[in-house]
Structures are given as structure tokens and as C-alpha cells.
Amino acid sequence: MTTQPLTSADLDARFSELFDRIAQGSIDREQNRTLAHEPVQWLKASGFTSLRVPRRYGGGGITLPQFFALLTQLGAADSNLPQILRAHFGFIEYRLEGRDETLRERWLTRVAKGETVGAATSERSNSTHNSVALARDDATGRFRLDGEKYYSTGTLYADWVSVAAHDADTDINVIVATHAPGVTRSDDWDGFGQRLTASGTTRFDGVLVAEEQIVSRYKASEPRRDSFMTAFFQTVHLATLAGITQAVQRDAVAFVQARTRTFGVPGRSSPRDNPLVHRVVGRLASLAYSTQSIVASLSASLQRLREARQAGHATTDDYIAVDIEAYKAQQIVIEQTLEASTLLFEVGGASATSEARQLDRHWRNARVIASHNPATQREAAVGRYHVNGIAPDERFSLPHEAQAARTDAARADLGESVQ
């Protein structure tokens, strides 16, 4: 293994052919709803799934800007794949944030060998309810995991699953093997986009869990101001959306170059020479540039915060600032990707709507990704932060009096009357 850090040129050379191979099969997989088991195996074998693992554990040790640039390229090849691996990459980052070297050593060395981790955290019921229970099994001296999760994206493809559970008053994160007795994974995701992410149900029926599989205990109601995981997970979505805008531009150009007649013009009239088509493609290229640039800027902020944390001087305000930046980026990238995936159809007539081309997958996939996190609530959170100085989600964890005090203090700083 080389001791020199991997450059962006090294990474492009290493993965460009693989991304091309993934892109070539994306339409067939979409048309036939063929789950992406083979592409996931390619990514594991190539070392892509361990790129963020530090070198001392056997991974690639690349930076966050390098990682998100590659993830954008993967999203352009097939937007299902970044989302399939979103929980896996989040698991790596969460371990990097943690200070337990035993856990890092145990799990990151597994990831470096190609093992992947899915997630089972969300449920169909109220988002504040956690129905999966962990209880000690007196017969074995181990723990027993029971319950059900939905939206367990990527778990059908994974070797392990990170589960949000509870025992009485404590919230717990446990990791179990996806092929362990009592684990059932179902591909019952019925969304109209991101159809291959297997974002369906995972059930746990008396799954035995050893003590070392419990990786954290926490209170879900307690605010977390020392983590950038919310921003990280959002940036994965934004990189995927930026990839979709790149794919839209690519497919628009390919469609135009293959045509011999402009819509509505009889006879032979090449769209390549039509200034209106040029304008549409120019707009698509600009949107692709914008979304990619926003992701690059946000990933650089995450990298700076990661380095500040490692140096021991990251502050609460630093974490809040990166969350706000991610929320702002979310508003623009979603809007621009949906614009691009609709505008795409202006390069051609009815032939652009052919099922064989699957051009509609770009809008469907973008719309589903955009729906995973509440963009409108986050836009309001940004406004509330700037007006009243209340950090995102803090209003859900602070007593009313504390919220009022924070708001009054912010107004005082702005020179306003608080009477």
C-alpha cells in the first residue's frame, strides 16, 4: 500500500471505468426493477466503500471533499447507489467522531475488508416512537432484540445492520449481522423513485445480541451539539442530487446529438444547430455546475470542522454553523435538480418520454430524495436562526423558558426592544 495520500486524479483514474460500467446498466435495472446487488459488490471489491476509513485501519483515508466529489459521480451513474450506501458511510463517520478506539478498531477494520453496514432506525409510526426493544435473555445471558423498522435503506445489500432500539428508559444503538437468525429483510419499498434502494422493512424476532454489539447508549431527547452527522447525512443526499443534475446534462446532450429533426420542424433539421436547444442544454449545464459547486463548498466546511474537532478546538457554534449551511444548501440544490430534471424534456418532443429512455427516472429519483428530509421545516429553521438566534432543532429540546431567554438575548444583541 502506498504511503502517499490519494489525489483526486488518482481517484478519478481508479473509479471512472467502474462508474461507466454502473451507468451502462442503470436503465435496464430501472426498467426491470433489478436490485443493484452486482454494482454494490463492484463497489465493495474496488475499495470504494472503505475510502473514508483511515489508512491505519486499512482504508483509503481520503478527505471529505474527495469523498463527496466521487459520490456525486456515482450519483450521476446511478442515483440509487449513494443512497444504498448512505447509512454505511454515516456509520464510518460516526465511528470517526467517537472517541472509543476499541469500537473504531473492531468495526473500521471490518469495513476496510469490504463489509458494509445498513440501518434500521426509522419506523412508519410517529417518528419519536421507537418500537424495537432490547432485553436481557436469561437463558443465554445475552440480549434479545425484537421489533420492526421501515425505511431501512441499504440493509438488504449489507452485511451488518445498525439498529435503533431501547431498553426501558435508554435508547441504544446495536449492530447485528443481517443473516443472523431472526433477522428478516423485505424489499417492500413502494416509492415511485429510488426503486432499487430496498428502503423497506427489517424485522427482528428474538435476535440474540452480545454485549460487544451494543455500540452506544443515549437519550434521544437530549440535544447533540458536538456532532456534524446531520449535516453529513444531508450532504450525501445533496451529492446524489448533484449527480442527478450531471446525469440530466449528459442524457440531454446524448439525446440531442442522436436526433436529426427538431421538434415541430418538418424535414431534416438538426437539433445540434437549434439555438433554443442550445439554450436548454446551457441551462442544464449551469444547473449541474451550481449543484456540484454547492456540494463542494459544503464538503469543504465539513472537512474544516472535522480537522478542528481532531485538533480539539471545534466549538458549539461551529457545529451549528455547518448545520445551517447544510440546510441552506438543501433549499437550492433540491430546487435546481428538480428544475433540471423537468427542463430536460424541452430538448425533444414526445420521443423524449419513451419508456425505453427512462428519462423520467431523474425527476422521480430527485423528488424522492428531496422528500426524505423536511426541506420546508429546515428553511423555517434557517429563518428562525437568523431572526431569533435559535439553533436548528433546539426548540424541540429546550424548555419553553429557555427558548424565550435565548430569543430575548438574540433580540437584545440585535438592539431590539424585548419588552
TrEMBL record:
Acyl-CoA dehydrogenase/oxidase N-terminal domain span: 28-115
Pfam families recorded: Acyl-CoA_dh_2, Acyl-CoA_dh_N
Residue stretches in coiled coil: none
Record-linked SUPFAM superfamilies: Acyl-CoA dehydrogenase C-terminal domain-like, Acyl-CoA dehydrogenase NM domain-like
Keyword Acetylation: no
GO terms (BP aspect): L-leucine catabolic process
Domain of life assignment: Bacteria
Keyword annotations from UniProtKB, A to Z: Oxidoreductase
Xref: InterPro entries: Acyl-CoA_DH_C, Acyl-CoA_Oxase/DH_mid-dom_sf, AcylCo_DH-like_C, AcylCoA_DH/ox_N, AcylCoA_DH/ox_N_sf, AcylCoA_DH/oxidase_NM_dom_sf
UniProt keyword Oxidoreductase present: yes
Residue stretches making up the Acyl-CoA dehydrogenase C-terminal domain: 239-373
Protein name per Swiss-Prot or TrEMBL: Acyl-CoA dehydrogenase
